[in-house]
Every structure is written in C-alpha cells, then in structure tokens.
Amino acid sequence: MSEQGNDAFEEAFAKLLESDTEGLLDAPEKPQPITSADRLERAFMEIAEFYRDRGRVPSSTTHDVSERKLGARLDGFRANEAKAEAVADLDDFGLLAPPAAPENLDDLLEADELDLLDNNEDIFDVSSLPEVKRNLDDVEIAVREKAKDFEKFEHLFKAKHAELAAGDAVILPFKGVSTIKPGRFFILGGVMLFIAEIGEVEYKHVGGRERPKERLRVIFENGTESAMYKTSLSIRMGEQNGRAIAPANHTIDMTELGDADVETGHIYVLKSLSQDPTIKGIPHLHKIGFCTTTVEQRIANAQHDPTYLMAPVEIVADYRVYNVRPSRLENLIHRVFADVRLDMTQINTDRESYNPSEWFIVPAQVIDQAVQMIISGDITDFIYDEVTQSFKWTGNQTASE
Q1: How far apart (Å, rounded) are the C-alpha atoms in residues 160 and 304?
Q2: Mean local confidence (pLDDT), 37-57
Q3: In terms of Cα–Cα distance, which of 341, 281, 348 is closest to 308?
Q4: 49-87: pLDDT as tens digits
C-alpha cells in the first residue's frame, strides 16, 4: 500500500474510533480477581440490605438460619476492629456500633419471651457457685451512726448466733433485693445485720421515669445503724459477698422450686488455663456462656476449640437456669459487660481465623453480682464501670444512701 493509501486508511480508522461512542471497538477487560476486601464488603452489604428491607439488625439467636448467619456475621464485624474499619465507609445505618450497656429491661428483652420480671426468683440456682474469700474493708463504717436504742436489738443478735451454733439456722448465698424484708438477718463485710424497719416508698427519677425506693433502718451487731436504701444494701451485699441467715428447716423462699419448674440449661463462667503469655497475662479474663448439656460435657474439647482460646479451662461458676431460655440470659449478661469484651483473633486447627466473642475482662465476683442483680431486677438501675470494676448507680443517689 502506498504512503498516500496508508494516510487515508489511518484517517478513516481514526474517524471510526471517534464515532464509536458505545465502546464497541474497545478491547475486552480481563475480569479482576476477587480480593479478601471485596468479600468483606459484599458480606457487609448483605447485612445492610437486610437492615434496609426490615428496619432492624439480623439476630444471631433466631431459628431462621439465613438471618442467624447474617446476625453471626454482624457480631463478627463488631468484635473485630480491623474488619469493622475495612467496611466502615459502607456503614450508612450505624450497624457497626456495639450494643450499648443496658439502661432498662425494656430496651433489652422482648415482651413475654423471658418473663424475667414476673418470676425472677427462680431463674438461677446458684448453690454450686464456689464461695469467694475476700478481705474487703467495711465501706459502710463511715456512714453509720451509733444506734441509740441498741439494747432493744442486742438480744436478737445473741439469739441468732446461738441458733447458728446449734444448727437451727444456716448461712445461705444472698439472693437479691426481693429477699430484704423486716425481721431478717444478713451478713455484710463479716458483720451480722438486722432489718428493723422498711420505710414508706419514695420515688426517684431514674432513667427517664419514676422508680420506687425504700429506705431501711438497718441495725448492725456492732451497735451501729444505717438508713440506706434497700437497693443500696442489695448492691453492697453483692459487692462484699454478703450472706443471708435463715432457719435450717427452710430457706425463706430463696431457693424453692415448684413442681412445674423446668431446668432449661446452664449459664457458666470459665477461666482460661492457657499458657500463651498474651492470654495468661490478662487479669480477670472470663468466658460467660451457656449450654443445655452439663458444663463438663460442653468444655470437654476446649483445648482444640478457638471458642475456648485453644486451651483447657476451669469452671468458676455454674448457674442452673429454670423456665427461661439460657441463650437469652447469656445475651443479657454479655450486654451488661459489652464494654469489656475481649478483642482477640484466634487461629483454629484448620488455620482459620476466629474471633471469640464470649470472653470478658471482669472479676468473677462482679459477674456473680450481675447475675444476682438480674434475678432481683436491680440491673436496670446500674451500669458497669470498667475503671473501678464495679456497678454504678445511674441515678443521683449519694454514697451515704
């Protein structure tokens, strides 16, 4: 072809390319391989689509398998900071925000599923909880006053000690605020106390609504008394491993189970026996879980399961649950301690990564206190403070109350 012919061909070809507004003459692009980032984004978008369609986040405890898968996936994103950051720009609905610590039971529980407030004294049997030996100062000394009429009560304490020595009275675990009634004896900080009076109900504005508060007259065997609220005494009993004193022939309605009560499972607290320095060096690290078999059966293969940090575990507490689905109660306890959940990735025997979500950095006695507060209903008035490792009242009650 002559040079003039070449020029004409190139000019014609250039015009043809310019006229190809649809890109029909473009070279086909090779498909790009799917990256791990792409898979993360697609996985998160499925969760976002569920929320957009139904107006709620998917549940990880539902019987709907497809929804449960999305709920578990969302829990995984929330528990893994790196994954959450990778899809943060796609989170138009705020799905990655962790659940807030509970302010009231209405925010936590679905109506008629737990009946937690209707029959809350038979939820747990805590008789198997090992006694925790603690050397705590008596924090109430500073706010107690000398009991002016202590002579009216002194003989009651002497009689109760005699009953204990003779086996006519027994010492039991404290079972919550509902057991605090006039005429009953308890032990707080190693000192026996007597509930002499319960005053008229006062109403305090807490959490956006009025809540009833009852002022006590509490007489201590050392000759002092206190006018704390009933709720305050319950919290201090939990903090100081308080005990109740009851006649030996019954348990003052604290541990009674009826013929219709059905055991539904266990809530357990475990301690890791891992020799991994990263795990071993974390103080107060505990797993809070549930099972419908025995706890011993559940943990039999712990050293091969990333759920248990790939190591043997020790049972710290085993609460038997009655009339309530243990998974729901487990979820409630997890939400109480959401701010101290362990953030760690484990590798299982198949070299797959796993984010254990049931481990929390919280003392065992505080977990037990949370259980007691759920039983009594007091949990609605308190939030957990990870700095002081204790519960803080959400109202305006003073320390002396």
Answers
A1: 52
A2: 86
A3: 348
A4: 888 888 888 888 787 788 888 988 888 888 888 888 888
Other C-beta atoms lying within 10 Å of the C-beta of residue 395:
15
Q: What pLDDT does residue 311 have?
A: 92
In sequence order, the β-bridge partners of residue 385 are: 390
- Rounded (10°) angle between helices 65-79 and 36-54: 120
Angle, helices 326-336 vs 364-376, to 10°: value is 120
Counting beta carbons within 10 angstroms of the beta carbon of residue 255, is it exposed (0 to 12), middle (13 to 18) or buried (19 or more)?
Answer: middle
Number of separate helices (H) and strands (E) present in the chain = 11, 16
Residue 397: is its pLDDT beyond 80?
Answer: no
**In a 10 Å sphere around its CB, with 0-12 CB exposed, 13-18 middle and 19+ buried, how is residue 161 labelled?**
middle
Question: 1-5, 269-273, 337-341: which has the minimum mean pLDDT?
Answer: 1-5
Put the strands of the sheet holding 185-188 in their side by side order: 145-146, 224-226, 209-220, 191-206, 185-188, 243-247, 169-173
What whole-number distance in Å separates Cα of residue 167 and Cα of residue 329? Answer: 36
Rounded to 5°, the CA angle 249-255-260 comes to: 110
How far is residue 395's CA from residue 358's CA, in Å, rounded to a whole number? 29
Report pLDDT for 258: 45
Q: What is the DSSP letter of 101?
A: P
Half-sphere exposure of 235 (CA within 13 A, CB side): 22
Cα 276 to Cα 48: distance, rounded to the nearest angstrom: 37
Q: Side-chain half-sphere of 293: how many Cα atoms within 13 Å?
A: 6
pLDDT of residue 140: 40
Decide: residue 345, CB within 10 A, 0-12 exposed, 13-18 middle, 19+ buried: middle
Residue 245 φ/ψ, nearest 5 degrees: -115, 130
Encoded tokens for 79: 């528990």
Amino acid at 170: V
Q: Which residue has the higher pLDDT, 128 or 177?
A: 177
Digit-coded pLDDT (tens) for 352-390: 777 888 999 999 999 988 887 777 666 777 889 889 888
Q: Residue 178 carries which side chain, given as an amino acid letter?
A: S
